[in-house]
Amino acid sequence: MTDSLPPLLAHEWIAGLEKGLTVIEAFDAHHPRMTATEAGERCGMTRTAARRYLKTLAHLGYVGTDGKQYWLMPRILRLGHAYIESARLPKLVQPSLQRITSGTDEIAYLGVLDGDDTIFLARSGSPRHTSTGYWPGTRVPAQVTAAGMAILASLPETEMDAWLQGRHMPAFTSFTFPSPQKLREALVQYRRQGWSVSEQQLDLNYRGVAVPLLDRHNVVHGAISITMPINREETDHALMRVLPVMQEAARALRPLL
Questions:
Q1: DSSP summary character for residue 205
Q2: Is the dihedral of CA 63, 43, 160, 168 positive or negative?
Q3: For 64-81, how does the pLDDT look when each residue is reduced to its tens digit (9 = 90+)?
Q4: Residue 93 CB contacts under 8 Å (≥ 6 apart), including other chains
């Protein structure tokens, strides 16, 4: 999916940058506001050190504060937006997402794997879909998304097994895969058939279908996916309707990746 980076020499490492980014990443849905003490605990640093980073981020406009608690400010979106604007893959895939939507009348997404999660980098949709689905930047645990499973299934087996090793499998619904072994069995099947489906893994009301984006060397770069209400049609009918369009899009993109 990504080129491996060469080892970083000690004199090239900027520890302060690493810690500042760690502080930013400490904020999430469960920790939207934190004191310096709480941020330090989450980041493995002292209160004094966390406070210095937070005050610097506040001075730069990335963090807000009332003197006690800190929270992220809209300026932080510049960091993610810069990637969306400059990255090659979303721009390359966006026209294909539009064609998938035209051919299926469903929301189409580009997702990539980032650690534990699927990140959705681009989407398309008809006007009736403007208030639903994932938006660019949304992160979802990879094992419950069709895109995440399509990517994992396309990794070299050693990389797939390394990702699964000791994996915690929280149950979002009663249909969520209960163990890494059960997930691996599904991934082997998805690798064999060349596409994945996620039904009620994250939300009881939705189905996801995904096709991996492979280059000419069979290296996976991400996945294109569709989500749809599960009660609208049977699985077989849904697959017959959307899969050919998605597979054609993936084939057309293959020589460009």
A1: T
A2: negative
A3: 999 999 999 999 988 888
A4: 110, 122, 213, 222, 224, 253
For residue 109, the 8-state DSSP code is: E
Q: How many CB atoms lie within 10 A of CB 201?
A: 26
Closest CA relative to residue 133, chosen from 228, 38, 63? 228
What global pTM score does this model have?
Answer: 0.81
Element housing 160 (H / E) = helix 157-164
- Domains annotated for the chain, with CATH where assigned, are 10-75 (1.10.10.10), 87-256 (3.30.450.40)
State the CB neighbour count (10 A cutoff) for residue 198: 27
For residue 111, the cross-strand partners are 120, 223
Task: Tell the residue number behind the tokens 């009620």, with chain if given.
Answer: 200
Q: Are strands 206-214 and 69-72 parallel, antiparallel or unpaired?
A: unpaired
Chain center to CA of 55: 30
